[in-house]
Amino acid sequence: MTSDDKTFLIAIVGSGPIGLECGLHALKHGYQFIIFESGDDIASNIRSWSHVRLFTPLHMNTSLLGKTIVDNVEKENQFLTGGEYIEQYLRPISHSLQSNIRLQHRVISIGRYHLDKFIILVESSQNGSEEYFIVDCVIDASGTFSCPNFSGPSYLPAINERILRHSKSSLITYRIPDLKCRRTWWKTNSINWKRS
């Protein structure tokens, strides 16, 4: 590693699987880095579907570098839920990166700063303060789960979808429901469709 590598600062947006893996590689290669997570814990997007079982076995959702920290050989072929994946793989990885993870720090905007750097505006939800960070590299690992597509034709909003999407009593959800936890709600609520 050169002296330039020691001062090279990487900003990683998101502390899900990709963000944490990027952090592991930055740590391994001696780079300085900060992981910004808008949620109050790691992998907040996965947490919102923690009841859903992954479609692939654990060994397909891990890396060689991650396996040097977490040894789940007996569970390698199991299909974990999102919550199990967090606790059995992502959480142990996050412990080795803890000093570099900033929870409840939402990236508001990213822009160029001179020719070879980036400037990031970050908001802390702990106290509402904002702060600039000047970095050499930005890795956006925030994912798209919190920004779902509209459900109309060609991904345009369906009629009245924009209004219903933001109303407090909205019947529109883009999340995968946990039917076990909300069994009573689903039994007592329904939508009546009337043809005109």
Briefly, what is this?
This protein has about 200 residues and is of the alpha/beta class.
Describe this structure in words.
The protein is of the alpha/beta class and 196 residues long. It contains 7 helices and 7 strands; from the N terminus they run H-E-H-E-H-H-H-E-E-E-E-E-H-H. It has helices spanning 3-7, 17-28, 44-47, 64-67, 82-97, 161-165, 183-188; strands at 9-13, 32-36, 101-102, 105-113, 117-124, 130-135, 137-140. The strands form 2 sheets. Strands 3-2-1-7 form a 4-stranded parallel sheet. A 3-stranded antiparallel sheet has the order 4-5-6, with no helix packed on it. Strand 5 and strand 6 (130-135) form a beta hairpin. Helix 2 packs parallel to helix 5 (82-97).
Quantity of strands, as a count? 7
Q: Please mark out the parts with pLDDT under 50 across 5 or more consecutive residues, or reply none.
A: none
Question: What can be said about the biggest beta sheet?
Answer: 4 strands, parallel
Mean pLDDT: 88
User: How many angstroms separate the termini?
Assistant: 70 Å
Give the secondary structure arrangement, pairings included:
Elements: H1 3-7, E1 9-13, H2 17-28, E2 32-36, H3 44-47, H4 64-67, H5 82-97, E3 101-102, E4 105-113, E5 117-124, E6 130-135, E7 137-140, H6 161-165, H7 183-188
Parallel strand pairs: 1-2, 1-7, 2-3
Antiparallel strand pairs: 4-5, 5-6
Helix pairs in contact: 2-5
